[in-house]
Design goal:
By secondary structure, the chain is α/β, with parallel strands linked by helices. It is built from 8 helices and 7 strands. The chain has helices at 16-27, 39-48, 62-75, 100-125, 149-168, 200-212, 222-227, 231-241; strands at residues 7-11, 31-36, 53-56, 81-84, 132-136, 175-179, 217-218. Bound molecules: NADP nicotinamide-adenine-dinucleotide phosphate.
């Protein structure tokens, strides 16, 4: 993928991996629109990255997704890249009783939203030069972490959807790319849960370099291993991550 000259919409672009990707797209000469629920985080990101365009949007709500796409198409008609990065992670025991709506939100944010945003933007992207859709999945798509059962399932679903999307769009100019993070040091799931992960800048540098080199599915460290693993290796990884 050419990192320069794009107009890139990044969900969850104000923090963590999304912010690191936003910075690198900007540095490469692209325009970036960052989306999230917290306006203060979006404004902080804008201070760090002058020229960043921001929009408050809760992608859990279908009406807000539609309004987001209408705004983006109207204000940035040259929009040619969608990065489905927004995600949440909840760790819980399935035996604990909990309101279903709380659990359903993780499905909606991590799976329904990227699929809906993709669907909404496909007609527009087809008309653009060098269009691309980047989905941010996880190494947990390949070997789940049982304490995050819905999260892991959502990432497996998004990985599967990405393969189907790429296949269906093969005859179009739209590139379909997948970023498969390992544990990265961000605030995903709450501050302090991923501090042992790879530094976000190290991860983002590697990802962008490989996307620029033309790779379609990019992991790092353990997620690079697991996305290429045999069934036996996946079983061993599952045992390892769930024995802690
Ligand atoms: N960090 C890791 O170890 C790791 C590993 C594998 C995959 N990933 C994936 O990487 C992506 C980015 O996560 P991160 O690690 O960078 O954590 P993060 O800093 O918590 O980023 C998640 C972003 O998503 C946004 N978001 C969440 N729900 C949203 C909603 N309903 N509407 C709009 N925006 C929403 C958040 O902003 P608001 O809260 O302001 O809305 C936040 O900016 C996620 O898809 C995650 O699953 C991360």
């Amino acid at each position: 993928m050419n990192l320069a000259g794009n107009t890139v919409l990044i969900t969850g672009g104000a923090t963590g991996i999304g912010l690191a990707l936003a910075r690198r797209f900007q540095q490469a000469g692209s325009t970036v629109l960052a989306v999230g629920r917290r306006e203060d985080k979006l404004r902080e990101a804008q201070q760090q990255l002058p020229g960043l365009h921001i929009r408050v949007c809760d992608v859990a709500l279908a009406t807000e997704r539609v309004a987001l796409v209408e705004w983006a198409r109207r204000e940035y008609p040259q929009l040619n890249v969608l990065v489905n990065n927004a995600g949440v992670q909840r760790r819980f025991q399935l035996t604990e009783e909990e309101d279903w709506e709380v659990r359903r939100q993780e499905l909606v944010i991590n799976v329904e939203a990227p699929i809906h945003l993709t669907t909404l933007l496909l007609p527009h992207l087809r008309q653009q030069a060098a269009p691309a859709i980047l989905n941010v999945t996880s190494g947990l798509a390949f070997a789940p972490m049982a304490q995050a059962p819905i999260y892991s399932a959502t990432k497996a679903a998004l990985h599967s959807f990405t393969l189907s999307l790429r296949h269906q769009l093969a005859a179009t100019p739209i590139q379909v790319l997948e970023i498969v993070p390992p544990a990265v040091n961000t605030d995903l799931g709450g501050a302090g849960l991923h501090t042992w992960g790879v530094p976000v800048d190290v991860f983002a540098d590697s990802v962008m370099e490989r996307l620029a080199a033309g790779e379609q599915e990019v992991g790092y460290g353990t997620s690079e291993e697991i996305r290429r693993a045999s069934r036996e290796q996946i079983d061993a990884r599952f045992q390892l991550i769930n024995s802690r």
